[in-house]
Structures are given as C-alpha cells and as structure tokens.
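Thread amino acids onto this structure.
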C-alpha cells in the first residue's frame, strides 16, 4: 500500500499533492487514528462529500457514503438539508432517509424529497426500458378481432395490423381489421406484495419503483401491497413513486400470513392473477396459516413466485426452511437483481 498512515515507515514515500488529498479523504473515513477523522459537523462532512465526488467514480462514492453511515454513525447528519443536497443518491442511503423521515425537521424534507426524486429518476431511466421491453409481448396478446362499436379498442394492434392499408392520398390508415377487448374481458391482475421489515428495506425500494412503472401500464392492473406487522395497500398512489416511497411503512415484524389473507380478499379471479411475494420468508406470524393460504392459492390456479431479495450484490439472508415449504406448494422462491425483476414478472405472465 502506498496510501495510508500504516504504510512502511522505513520506506518513506513523498506523495504528490493530488495523492495527499486522496489519502486524506480515505484516512478521514477508514483510519481511526487520523487527526483528520470525520467529525459530526455539517461543514466537515459537506467538504468531505464534495471531495470524494470529485476524486472517485460514482460507484466508489456510494460505497464510501454507506461506510460513513455504518462506521461513523452519521445518520443524524442526514437530517440536515445541506448534507442531503451534497450526497449522491443510492438505494441504501435513500432507505436510511426513509427510516429517518419521521424525525426529519421541516427544513430538511424538501431536500430529502429532491434526493429521493433523483434516485427515482436514475432507476427509472435504467429500468423503464427493461419493463416496457419485457411486457411488449403482453401489450397486444389479449385483444381480439372485433367489430368497432362499444368495445375498448387496442389501437396499437389495430394500426400495426393495418399498415398495409395506408392511403397515400389521404395520409391515413383505413383499418379493415379492428382489434379490441370484449365487455367480458378482465385485465390480468398483478399483486406485488412487499415485506417492509428492516432486513428487506433495500428490496422494498427497488420493488416499489418497478411496481410504480408497472402501474403505468394499461394492459395489467397492478396492486402494491406492503406488510410488516400490519398490511398497507398503497395501490392508489402507485403511479407517484416519490410519494409511494415516503409512504412505506418501514420496520416492524413479518406477518406474511396476514398479507396473504388480505390478497385473497382483494383477488377477483385467481386464474387471471399473478402474485409476487418479496420477502426473506422469516415468518413471525402463523406458519400453518401461511401454508394453508398458499395451498389454497395453488388449488385456485393462481400463479405465484417468491422473491427472497432484490439487489445487485447477491448477498442476502432468508429462512431456508420456509422457502422450501412454500416451493413445495407451488411458490418457487428465488433472488434477483433489479434489472431481472421485471423480466421475471413478464416471463410468468406470458407463459
């Protein structure tokens, strides 16, 4: 190692000015003996945040921010608007802000919302194309050939199938075949049921943003349901991802059985519905009640999938015993990255 105070004292190395600045930034965080250690002051933290953004690539900045929160116990500084304006948004940081939101003074709430909004924009830019591409197949698969009248038209499919009937002189497509949905047709229902206990916070943020994108699709009816000790249905605000995230009921225990019973009451047609349970399956409620409800879902023809974690690291803990019991009842349990989550949903719905 060249950088750092623990380098070989017998081999004194003179650092360039730029390297000295980098060394100071690292020592402030990782060297407890350093005189330049991070103090719990707005000015020093703000200067350090500015320094790491200018010195390191974004992925390293996010790791160092996370380490500052974990190693230095600086969560309270996130309640200061000046600090919130200085940090780079990432899922773990936003999860911490959401957990602290009730303690946040009014002066900081606007900066906090801006930070969450920046994360939402970043993830939507990355995930929206994947969601739309994954669901492209299902966008026109359920409409049928109809006679125009009182039916709800599938304009995309109608125009696409009639492009050969484009009239150059009128500069219009005159459809000869019409596609739409009959009155008896029901949109498929997608239930995304999300564990908001402390161990699942990062996954809940990812699932909420993907769920919000899915809620904007007109070809499915998406329900976003959250649970810990209690069940909260946030479907009504599902198309506003920032409001959705600030409404998450974070913390508490894990009563999966109660959430499954709630879904059973909301579901219209199990054979035309899809359930994705995002949880580490560490059930604190009645296991027998949970297994009985999942067995009932299986008997009714519901398509189910368990998602044990949504993250990029591949590191997570879960209740292996319960996951295997659910899999035996037809709810296979996997983990996935945020990129793959919409593809997994689409694959299940397009089978």
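Threaded sequence (351 positions):
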């Amino acid at each position: 190692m060249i950088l750092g105070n623990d380098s070989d004292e017998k081999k004194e190395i003179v650092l360039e000015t730029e390297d000295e600045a980098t060394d100071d930034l690292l020592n402030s965080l990782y060297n407890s003996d350093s005189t330049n250690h991070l103090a719990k002051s707005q000015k020093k933290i703000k200067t350090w945040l500015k320094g790491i953004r200018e010195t390191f690539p974004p992925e390293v900045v996010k790791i160092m921010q996370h380490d500052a929160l974990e190693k230095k116990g600086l969560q309270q500084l996130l309640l200061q608007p000046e600090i919130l304006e200085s940090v780079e948004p990432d899922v773990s940081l936003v999860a911490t802000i959401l957990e602290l939101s009730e303690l946040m003074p009014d002066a900081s709430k606007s900066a906090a919302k801006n930070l969450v909004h920046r994360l939402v924009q970043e993830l939507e830019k990355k995930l929206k194309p994947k969601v739309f591409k994954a669901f492209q197949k299902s966008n026109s698969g359920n409409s049928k050939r109809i006679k125009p009248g009182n039916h709800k038209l599938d304009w995309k499919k109608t125009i696409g199938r009639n492009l050969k009937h484009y009239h150059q002189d009128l500069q219009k497509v005159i459809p000869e075949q019409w596609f739409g949905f009959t009155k008896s047709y029901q949109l498929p229902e997608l239930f995304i049921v999300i564990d908001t206990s402390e161990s699942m916070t990062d996954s809940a943020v990812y699932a909420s943003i993907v769920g919000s994108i899915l809620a904007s699709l007109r070809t499915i009816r998406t329900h976003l349901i959250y649970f810990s000790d209690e069940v909260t249905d946030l479907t009504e605000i599902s198309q506003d991802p920032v409001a959705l995230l600030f409404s998450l009921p974070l913390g508490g225990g894990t009563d999966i059985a109660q959430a499954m019973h709630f879904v059973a009451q909301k579901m219209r047609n199990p054979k035309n519905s899809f359930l994705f349970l995002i949880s580490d399956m560490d059930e604190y409620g009645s296991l027998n009640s949970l297994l009985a409800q999942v067995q009932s879902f299986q008997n009714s023809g519901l398509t189910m999938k368990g998602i044990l974690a949504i993250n990029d690291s591949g590191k997570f803990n879960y209740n292996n015993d319960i996951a295997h019991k659910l899999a035996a009842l037809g709810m296979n349990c996997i983990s996935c990255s945020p990129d793959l989550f919409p593809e997994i949903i689409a694959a299940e719905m397009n089978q």
